[in-house]
Write the structure tokens for this entry.
Amino acid sequence: MSTVKKSTSEQLLNDKWDVVISNTLVKTALGFGFGVVTSVLFFKRRAFPVWLGIGFGAGRGYAEGDAIFRGGDAGVRIVNP
């Protein structure tokens, strides 16, 4: 079998995507969990706190992913080559 070596820029882009996807999944899951707890404790098990939590989590993940790709400082992990 032949091994294909990826270029540095391709590897950096792959590393950034890995961070963005994992960060978005974690933020969305935390938003879901917070929404479920809030729904059970305060809103008689209605669905809107869950959807609101998912939306906030996904939005925060998207915003941090945008900052990672733009190279800005958003207080997130730095992806080194």
